[in-house]
Fold:
Amino acid sequence: MHRYIASALTAATLVIGFGSLCTGCAAWAVMAGAGAGAAAYEIPHIRAMNALEEDFHSEPRRSYEEYEAYMRRKHEIQEQSLVY
Structure:
């Protein structure tokens, strides 16, 4: 779980780093805000996907309906996220 959060924060840091290459303080501030916003947007999706995976794999035997609900929720998270 921490690996995915770390990758999201690394991506945000790279966005901030590229923003610092731009000229002017306003461009840097905009890029820093965009990086922080992207990280704040992605972290809940990463946590939701990890919780879904842990819940699904905790019990090996599932019914077909439970599997369909799992896949439906997984696709919802993937559609909302930029990482997945």
